[in-house]
Design a protein that fits this description.
Strand order of the largest sheet: 2-1-3-4-5
Strand content: 15-25%
Order of helices and strands: HEHEHEHEHEH
Shape: globular
Distance between the termini: 16 Å
C-alpha cells in the first residue's frame, strides 16, 4: 500500500502556505488541484496562525522558519512544518528536525518531492 492509498477515504490533505514567491505559489495551486488538497495561502504570520486555528494542516513556509516554528509551538497548532529553502543541505535539514519541523524541500519546488513531503507529513499528522 502506498501513501496515497493509506490516506484515501480520509479527510483531504490540508496545506497552509506562507510563501512569497509567485512561482512557488503557482506550483502549490497546480498541485493542490491535481492532488485534491485543500490549500490556503497565508500572506503573513498572523494569517498563518488564524488558518491553523480552523483545522490541522501541513505548513509549507520559507523565510524566518525558526520564528514561525516557535509561534506554531506556542499556539499549540496541530501541524507539520515543511521548510522551502533554496538549498537543502544536511545541516539545515537536521536543524529543522531538531527544532520540531518535519522536512525541508528545495525551492523552486520539485513537484514529486513536494507531493511526497506533504503526503507523508499529513499521514504523520493524522496518526
Amino acid at each position: 500500500m502506498n501513501i496515497r492509498q493509506a490516506i484515501s477515504g480520509k479527510e483531504r490533505v490540508r496545506v497552509v502556505a506562507l510563501i512569497d514567491g509567485a512561482a512557488e505559489r503557482a506550483t502549490l495551486h497546480t498541485l493542490a488541484a491535481r492532488e485534491s488538497w485543500r490549500l490556503a495561502i497565508a500572506h503573513d504570520h498572523q494569517a498563518l496562525l488564524r488558518e491553523l486555528r480552523q483545522a490541522p494542516a501541513v505548513v509549507v513556509c520559507e523565510g524566518d522558519w525558526r520564528a514561525i516554528l516557535e509561534s506554531l509551538r506556542a499556539a499549540g497548532a496541530r501541524c507539520r512544518m515543511i521548510l522551502a529553502a533554496p538549498q537543502t543541505v544536511d545541516k539545515l535539514w537536521l536543524e529543522v528536525l531538531e527544532l520540531g519541523g518535519y522536512d525541508v524541500v528545495t525551492s523552486p519546488f520539485h513537484e514529486r518531492r513536494l507531493i511526497d513531503a506533504i503526503d507523508h507529513a499529513w499521514a504523520e499528522l493524522m496518526k
